[in-house]
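Hey,
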Amino acid sequence: MNKTRQIWRNIDLFSLRLRLTIGIATVSAIGNGSIAIWTSWRMQQILIDSHKNHIEQIAARLPQDVGLYSEMMLPETGLQKAINNLTNTKTFLWVKNPARKVVAQSPNWNSLSNSTVAELMSKSEMPIKPEVYKAGQHYFVLYGGSLQVQGKVLGMLFVVQDITRDQTMFLAMVRTLWIASILVIIVITFALAYYIKRSLHPLRQLSQMTEVISAKDLAQVQLHLDNPPSEVKELAQTFNMLLSRLSQSWEQEQEFVSNVSHELRTPLTIVHGYLQSVLRRQNNLTPTQQEALETASSEAKHTIRLLQDLLDLARADSGYFHFHIQSCVLNDLVAEVVGMAKKYSERTIQIEENTSPLKAKVDYNRLKQVLLNLIDNAVKYSEPNTPIILKLNQQGQQAILQVCDQGYGIPLQHQSRIFERFYRVDEARNHTTGGSGLGLSIVKTLVEGMGGDVKVLSKLGEGSVFTVILPI
């Protein structure tokens, strides 16, 4: 049962494979069904026609025989005599006068049950064209009409041919035909599903290849399929040309960002230095001038940091971001980071360690930058009177670093995107309250560059926990 449910879950109701299979199977079912219906109808007509001539001959001959016998005996006796002569084991005749009373009938009714005889005799008229009729457990071809002898109407003639044996064989053949048609449709459906699956395999390969392509792979990747159909081969070639254009655009963008960041950082650093130098000689400044210079210095410092982040990301994208991996004690690193954070934040920052000195191979300075970014993020989005906790644990061959706050929390729909560049949960925040949107992106880039991973778990009104996982 569980396996069946799993199969149904894996079926994509909107897939091209399912649509093609259903469409072709439906056309096949309609075609086979139409052939089966026409064949059944045609076989029924052949069965009726095989008995039709015999019944029509009896109906045409009876008035002649009655006329001959009537010249030698009474009309009623002649009618019965003629009926007896035309009756056999499978044929039954009877005549009703205008008063609906049976005046003559075949003598062989004892081969049928009383209920069947009564049902047949109760019929007040017969079809002009022969047709199949079921009475009891028997099948009959019915036919009738007016009986005229020498221009005089004697009554209504009823002729019945017992075709039970033929009809039973016919119904068995029809059942066999329908069963065979259903089996053929099922086999065709499965064969089509398998064939369509094989035919769509190159498209699936193409999808799997493109799914794993990242920005770093654009310059090297080339989609190649073994013996694909012409249409899929053309699609792969189109994808390759598209990837080539994307690679060129990506390289140009990264080069532009790197050049702009590098060129702007130096003059802005000089400007920031001059502003700081002027502020140190603030005795000659009015309060208004001092406030304006402090604002300019703060903005210049923020811009320098933003340019440095952009430069780091550009270097990481281009593969020129190098890490100096070395063995270090994470407990000492965490203690140093907390000491640095307390100086500029004046917040309560606690350390919880559940492990003895834990060593790991990381880039010491880059990991400090990661933790400082996460602490800065916690400071911005939590109340001043709430503590920030750093936890250090070991799970198997992994070191777990967690930065916990009791802040506002992150809505669930934003948690999967907060590590994207320039993404902000609240677009209304400016850089003084919400940052540039690059801090968490830098964190993710640095952690992954050291072979680790970073995750977030947050709930509105209760705070957030950022978890850095590093291999030991």
